[in-house]
Design a protein that fits this description.
mainly beta, 10-stranded antiparallel β-sheet, 8% helix, 451 residues
Length: 451
């Protein structure tokens, strides 16, 4: 408002005061505090307050709480809303607001109160009537709930909503919105305080908490409360709470945690060699057998085990399928009784012990000298101890000569079969021909040979 406009208003007010005085109005009467406001067309905010003086004059008020700057001026299309970002937990939040309505010649103070309705907006200050400007002076939201809540204060013009502020307030706190600030007020006076175990309290406006320290488990050092080693017990640590990173580092590579010292005690480091790791990282028994060098049987192959003058470098057990065949002929015509054919062996180092049993159902077209084949290992090359003999404990359906004392067998070097022979009195053994083998012949053999 310009100085010229103010001067015109002052002159008009003087004339009005004089007219009222001529009609009996006296200082201290009904018109002592008559007020006039002029609204700026640009800002729609109240002009300085004009107050009548006791001597009949007028002056511009320099300080009056009723003419404080408004937070926001509302016209007939605008309202103030308050809502929460989530529903209240127990109690709705309490709202209080004050505002002033400005007409051409009137000023009316107004207050209102309400409560929040969760995420649904509550109209705290409604739009004024047409021709009236409503100046918002103060708005507060008190958190009467039991949990922290986010409060939104906004303006609604009938079409769009514009947020003035959004704040989270704790239970017992108050969000205050005024023309000069937006703040959260925290209660400064503590009415009462309940001390827990190990704590004592005193005072109300200013509260002091004293910590009763158990010297065996707690200590205070440089204003820091620390837990002593004696205060940390196994039952105080949650299951799974200690991570690998919190465990003491090992001293070097290839260390396992355990205990090699006899009896119970603290955890110790145990050296894990490369050979041990090669077994530990095997994912299956098959992989372990491969690492250990296990043979085709069920027992492993050992290397370098010292047994005095000799080294045990191989041990194996297993089975094999024996056959009867001749020098020439067709294996396709050969048939054996499946329930009466089996062979077993034990190998220790370079020595192999065998046992076999076989019964034929058809000897096929074999001719020449008779042999029993299918031995599990090839015999050693010719040299000292490479010729081996076997014992025939039983045979059936095999024709031998009248002069034959016994039926025997031997294993030649670099071979996997037993040669059958007739031991004749006062002469060298002679090979047993396939003509002596019948379609239902059977034989049991045991012995050993070198590989």
């Amino acid at each position: 408002m310009t100085m010229e406009a103010t001067a015109e208003i002052l002159a008009a007010m003087k004339e009005l005061t004089a007219a009222l005085a001529s009609r009996g109005a006296t200082p201290g009467g009904d018109y002592q505090r008559m007020q006039m406001f002029a609204l700026s067309k640009e800002q729609r905010t109240p002009s300085p307050l004009l107050v009548s003086k006791e001597n009949g004059g007028l002056e511009v008020a320099t300080s009056n709480p009723r003419t404080a700057v408004s937070l926001l001026n509302l016209d007939s299309t605008r309202t103030i809303e308050v809502l929460l970002t989530a529903a209240h937990t127990t109690n709705p939040l309490e709202i209080y607001a004050s505002y002033q309505d400005f007409a051409k010649t009137e000023l009316a103070d107004q207050v209102t109160d309400n409560t929040t309705n969760g995420t649904t907006a509550v109209t705290v200050i409604a739009a004024p009537a047409t021709g009236v400007t409503r100046g918002v002076n103060f708005l507060s939201v008190y958190n009467a709930d039991t949990a922290a809540k986010s409060v939104i204060v906004r303006v609604f013009n009938g079409t769009n909503r514009r947020t003035i502020c959004k704040r989270e307030i704790q239970p017992g706190e108050t969000l205050v919105v005024t023309p000069t600030e937006i703040s959260v007020q925290i209660p400064t006076v503590v009415q009462s305080i309940i001390a827990g175990d190990g704590l004592s309290s005193s005072g109300t406006a200013e509260v002091t908490l004293s910590v009763n320290v158990d010297d065996t488990t707690l200590e205070i050092n440089s204003d820091a409360l620390r837990i002593k080693n004696a205060g940390v017990k196994e039952q105080n640590i949650d299951n799974g709470a200690v991570t690998y990173a919190k465990i003491q580092n090992v001293s070097a590579t290839d260390k396992l945690l355990g205990r090699s010292t006899a009896g119970a005690g603290v955890v110790e480091e145990i050296t894990c060699t490369a050979a041990a790791r090669s077994i530990l990282d095997d994912a299956s028994t098959s992989a372990i057998r491969t690492t250990l060098g296990v043979g085709t049987g069920d027992t492993p192959t050992f290397a370098g085990i010292n047994l005095g003058d000799e080294n045990l470098n191989d041990y194996d057990e297993g089975t094999f399928t024996p056959t009867i065949f001749g020098t020439t002929g067709s294996l396709g015509a050969y048939a054996a009784n499946a329930s009466e054919i089996h062979g077993t062996y034990v190998r220790i180092g370079s020595q192999v012990w065998i046992k076999l049993y076989i019964v034929l159902t058809n000897k096929g077209s074999w001719t020449g000298n008779a042999r029993v084949g299918g031995l599990p290992f090839t015999s050693a090359a010719q040299g000292t101890g490479t010729f081996s003999t076997v014992a025939i404990g039983w045979h059936s359906g095999i024709t031998i000569g009248a002069s034959t004392i016994a039926l025997g067998g031997y294993i030649l070097p670099n071979d996997t079969s037993v040669f059958l022979a007739e031991n004749v009195s006062a002469s060298s053994p002679t090979a047993l021909p396939m003509t002596s083998i019948a379609n239902n012949s059977g034989i049991m053999i045991s012995g050993w040979y070198k590989v």
